[in-house]
Amino acid sequence: MAKPFREILKTKEFIVTAEAGPGKGSNVSKIVEHIELLRDKVHALNVTDNQSSVMRYPSLGVCLLIKEHGGEPILQVTCRDRNRLAIQADLLFAHSRGINNVLCLTGDSIDVGDHKEARQVFDLDSVQLIHLVHTLNSGKDMAGNELDGATDFCIGTSATPSADPIEPQLIKVEKKLKAGVNFIQTQAVYELDELKRFVEFVRKIDEKVKILGGIVPVVGAKMATYMNENVPGIFIPQRIIDELAQAPKGTGVAKGIEIAARMIREIKERKVCDGVHIMFIGREEKVPEILKAAGLL
Amino acid sequence: MIIAERKLMEEIKRLVAPFKKVLVAGCGTCVAVCWAGGEKEVGILASQLRLARNAEGNKITVLEATVERQCEKEMVLELKDKVAEVEAVLSLACGAGVQTMAELFEDKPVFPAVNTTFIGKPEKEGLWTEMCGACGDCFLDRTGGVCPVVRCAKGLLNGPCGGTRKGGKCEIDPEKDCAWVLIYRRLEKQGRLALMREYNPPKNYRAVKRPGRIQAVKA
């Protein structure tokens, strides 16, 4: 059985988490393969919640699969698809099934997904969601009613260290820290200086919160340009696009892995933050290669 | 004011296809200002309808009329005689106007010829933007006079999402400003950024019990 993530956060270990993206459909064989492959190589596996607003197998479902296969799940919860009743009910369920980590997110806009005509919810925002989890942890629901059985979640959230302008983003981070979080998994970072600046900001407010730098490998110059234009919160600098463009044909994935591993090594060696969160969307099976190249396996 | 957009001609033609004589009824207030349903637009739509049906060899008689506010019974009643002459009414008013008309003339079908879109204001000639979501619980005092409920694509109350584009543009549309960047800049200018650091609790959606109804109390 994997060690509880909460315990890992108390150590001085370099923390490594990875993302497991559920597929579209009821066939879970592929995600189970990813779980089996990754569960012992990372400290916890994040499960995305209808990632990019594309309807998929649920985050809760995959978290249960991770538990069944001896891993440690982090349940990602966005505010886009559920109102406060549904979110609270899901969290009660998660806790009752041994899922003890929750990542509180806003969620991408409906417009970027595959059900663009749907009504997006956003009854709450991510700061309010963090407060909500604390409320459930305290044994009450949002309406102030006593719960027959509280939750006990280890709470995380996200932030975008590359946002421009950064100030409004940092004010929101400050609100999240004041609400109380145990860990932050940042959005993709490609400039270490931006990550460093972000960590310095957080440390002024909260010395304990663990910060995991977000790593999203890019496997080609074209993909990088596409991501810059279409994926919210992603800002890939030109020098990385150039480096990818210069890679010989057919070596894009290898180059992407090399760049990601280099980032991870630098983060670890320069002690920029407490760990990394690897999001290799659609290529989860390649995560061990990154870990190996980064000297983490 | 209320912003609306005229429906496409194809849809309007379909709505009145079974009829030989209709009234195109405009409204002289909001929809007139946003070029969707005032006297001028009534004239344009009436002409377009006549031309289109002529071309099909299926003539239609189109009466035209515009009242100052189609959401007020007394004003809509001015149209009584004209409505009596026709088989159906095409209303160019907002949803409130269409329904007032439909309520007053229950024996006649009243069709919307515009899509009511939002409460907004003119930005420049021919451009209107959404400003208010009629949430019933205004907190513009906390946000430097910029409403995140409708001007943020996600209606977030405690700051920007992580998807803001470079330069402070919205995740879903580079043409639109991130409301929270606007709020930041406004409050910074006023030296009131501390307000932005305050936690805004979840919105009370009971502030307006839908369907909304307000009974004024006379002083």
Please outline what is shown here.
The complex is a heterodimer of chains A (297) and B (219). Chain A is α/β, with parallel strands linked by helices. Chain A has helices at 5-10, 29-38, 59-68, 84-96, 126-137, 167-179, 192-205, 221-230, 238-246, 252-269, 287-293; strands spanning 15-20, 44-47, 73-78, 101-105, 154-157, 183-188, 210-215, 275-278.
CATH topology of chain A: TIM Barrel
Cα distance spanning the termini of chain B: 27 Å
Q: Could you tell me how far the N terminus lies from the C terminus of chain A, measured between alpha carbons in angstroms?
A: 19 Å
Strand ordering within the main sheet of chain B: 3-2-4-5
Number of strands of chain B: 9
Strand content of chain B: 15-25%
- Main β-sheet description of chain B: 4 strands, parallel
Number of helices, counting only DSSP H or I runs of 4 residues or more of chain A = 11
> How many DSSP helices of chain B?
9
Question: What's the pLDDT, averaged over the residues of chain B?
Answer: 96
How much helix, percentage-wise, in residues of chain B?
25-40%
**Which residue ranges of chain A are poorly predicted, with pLDDT under 50 across at least 5 consecutive positions?**
none
Tally of discrete structural domains of chain B: 2
Stretches with pLDDT under 50, minimum 5 residues of chain B: none
Give the C-level CATH assignment of chain A. Answer: Alpha Beta
Secondary-structure element pattern of chain B, one letter each: EHEHHEHHEHEEEHEEHH
Question: What average pLDDT do the residues of chain A reach?
Answer: 96
Question: Could you outline the blueprint of secondary structure elements for this entry?
Answer:
The complex is a heterodimer of chains A (297) and B (219).
Chain A: H1 5-10, E1 15-20, H2 29-38, E2 44-47, H3 59-68, E3 73-78, H4 84-96, E4 101-105, H5 126-137, E5 154-157, H6 167-179, E6 183-188, H7 192-205, E7 210-215, H8 221-230, H9 238-246, H10 252-269, E8 275-278, H11 287-293
Parallel strand pairs in A: 1-2, 1-8, 2-3, 3-4, 4-5, 5-6, 6-7, 7-8
Helix pairs in contact in A: 5-6, 6-7, 8-9, 9-10, 10-11
Chain B: E1 2-6, H1 9-16, E2 21-27, H2 30-33, H3 39-55, E3 61-67, H4 73-76, H5 80-85, E4 88-91, H6 95-104, E5 110-112, E6 114-124, E7 127-132, H7 148-151, E8 169-170, E9 173-177, H8 179-189, H9 194-197
